[in-house]
Amino acid sequence: MSMSVTEIRRGLAEGRFSSVEVTQDYLARIAQHNPVLNCFISVTDELALAQARQADADLANGNTQALTGVPIAHKDLFCTDGVRTSCGSRILDNFIAPYDATIIENFKRDGAVMLGKTNMDEFAMGSSNENSFYGSVANPWNIGHVPGGSSGGSAAAIAAGLAPGATGTDTGGSIRQPAALCGVTGIKPTYGRVSRYGMVAFASSLDQGGPFARSAEDCALLLQTMAGFDPRDSTSSEQAVPDYSAALGDGIEGLKIGLPKEYFSEGLDGRLAAVIETAVDELRKLGADIKEISLPNTSLSIPTYYVVAMAECSSNLSRFDGVRFGHRCADPVDLEDLYKRSRGEGFGEEVKRRILIGTYALSAGYYDAYYLKAQQLRRMIKDDFQTAFDSVDLILGPTTPEVAFEIGAKTDDPVSMYLQDIYTISLNLAGLPGISLPVGFVDGLPVGMQLIGNYFDESTLLGAAHSYQQVSDWHLQVPELAR
Amino acid sequence: MSGWETVIGLEIHAQLATRSKIFSGASTAYGAEPNTQACAVDLGLPGVLPVLNHEAVNMAIRFGVAIDAEIDHRSVFARKNYFYPDLPKGYQISQFELPIVGKGHISISLTEGEHREIGITRAHLEEDAGKSIHDQFPEQSGIDLNRAGTPLLEIVSEPDMRSAREAVAYARKIHSLVRYLEICDGNMQEGSFRCDANVSVRRFGDDQLGTRAELKNINSFRFLERAINFEVERQIELIEDGGRVVQETRLYDSQRDETRSMRSKEEANDYRYFPDPDLLPVQISDQDIASIRAQLPELPEQKKQRYIDDFGLSNYNAELLSSNRDTALYFEAALVESPQLSTPLVNWILGDLAGALNKAGLEISVAPITPIMLSQLITRIDDNTISGKIAKQVFEAMWQGEGSVDAIIEARGLKQITDSGAIETLIDDVITANPEQVEQFRAGKEKVLGFFVGQVMQQSRGKANPAQVNAILRDKLK
After folding, report:
1. Quick one: which of B168, B411, B427, B478 is 20 to 30 A from B293 by CA?
2. Residues 319 to 378 of B: which have CB under 8 A from any A CB?
3. Model pTM?
4. Superfamily holding A5-255+434-482
């Protein structure tokens, strides 16, 4: 049995079970399945049980916060005071942060219990979780397939019932794509909605943290804890955070939903298109006003993204130099040797590839042709969405062009791997929120549908997803091994 | 050496006097134990983010307003990427396009009455790096990150200076200005005010600039002058011997008084500047600028003019008094006590006080004689309590900490004798004792009067009022 966040909260409030019992249950499931699935890089059993005991005391005293006693897993990209934060990289294999990320503080404030830190593509660079120093994560629906990435550990943990809720980060699709491939619900909020303080940077202008859970209803609860202005992050928004759970009932009737024709063209597996169309019919029945729209610059999003993201990452990852923390090579003969070998040994292939491309894109003589050009295209992509939102409330499409592929199928073809993010990347470039929710299966593997909202309109996204989940049960499906 | 023109531009790094760092809450105080004033942000730990200290922006704007510069409504921070162990993030947050302060200018005075306008290209904000320490651990280098993240204003001049002397005058002027604006403590030894000089030479009449060398590691105005002079000579000799100046960075070695090549242009980094995505562009409104302008203190130029107009000071004295903010503050504080005595006050400040400070190696702000003490001293000269000569004794005693003017006069019995009866008695004694000199005077030898004055003053141990002595002597000797 695996429960939703909502069910756990209710059960704890009604005293049907204790936080220690729930936590022990999840820790047992992790112990049972993690050797195969590899969802967790670190499991914090003792810490979790201590927090659960504290939660039970708080519950008994009526000192209850929003998530008191609810076990949560965190992507190993969020700094956790005293617990290793590896970012899936050898270079941080020995790194223990002396501070908590803002969202970690938020979960502590709201009484959540931390089960552990989840596996991920190294520094969030990847779409399959195969780029982790700690090994691939297996998709719980078929362990020969990838769970997606980069937050693959979190998504797979939810699908396998190893955690009821988890955090992730999304730079080009790293929450939505693994959510789709693992059949769970995941939301990437508007850029600036969730603090980036303590979230190790991949591409600062694109990175955004968000939650995974079984349902939109659960995501609303977790996002409530994560969202809000943080004076330590200059790019976080001061805009007030609405009550997401209260907005769940707003429904879908009368909502104008646009289907970009570019999202349903070549490249999309026809079987996925059919699944999405069935879901669209369902929404129409619920009273949504569906129309076709166009996002003409969609095809530019991948090249634009790979210039912006790589340029930023080449600079962001400079601090991993073997000087103050992280991996340092043995017996460096001089400074240059220290840098070259520490970084050479510490970073994996994909990270090195991206640092090299980004360094090239920013170098003298190429800046205008690449970085500056990409910034111009980014504005055009953003304008496309702004125009679309003049006539629709939400935009709908597939989250990915295909279902989870086999482990190893694309590792030799980075471009094919990059194309997995075709439908998700443009939101990061525009800074818009998006949610992925399960809407069916192809070949026994989940299909995700993406809803895209206007800036800071996470409520409408969550409400629409919730309405759909009220009349469907795809989000309640559980893979064989978790039954 | 004739036939050559020197062209100099300066890059000055002024450390801004904010209490905390430019992108973190850590203290900027100088001299703490290594790495005790570096927080997670200064260490560049994974996940940390910079948050702009707006006081640094205000200080930069204050500077911009004072040099009459263009100040854009939008300013952007950029990352300057390079690897060095004392640069924790692997990039320095600086500004590239859109600095806070755009084009401005400042006037420097050379000889009496001669001025030159020096163009200022830009002034931008950036964070300082830490310090590498190479001499404390065998076979290892230490890193102190206390300084990392300290705000700097980099002030870049146009290549408008034509001699080392002009470069020093410009650097001193900027130094004076930043201290007046209270945005930098100007301490060159502690590195709060650093000058790099771009130096090139060309034949007179050439309109192309020569290839420049950038001189670094200059921590006093004296060294600035010396470094430039050395470099100019080096470049001219090189060219005259058929060589070519290469674009490079050269370190000034004050021990040997020479510059040495540090790295050439080919070895220079490609800094890969790009806008820092962690920081939003700074928005500066016209109201922000106006309110900073309204709060500007009186600046050196304005002070100097006021001293000339109000107190009739010479251009030279007015410049001396106003160029150092602390000297001006001293003068103005002393003036409050004795507003009518500006002339003797200026003479004492620029004369005896400056001499004593110089000898003791002290700054005027910590002078043992306070402005009030000095003004009391001058008041006692003015009201004839003591003579100017005795005053020097009193000054010395005050310097030694013997107390106030009046206490010293009292304790040492230095009060001037102004009682004509007492003076007459002294004079009568001297006249009686020197009949020969009396004859000489009466025979028309005027110079002998000085002998009598001297004798009387000696008898009074300097306390007789010299003017009275003179008058009574003339009378008696008739």
Report:
1. B168
2. none
3. 0.90
4. Amidase signature (AS) domain (3.90.1300.10)
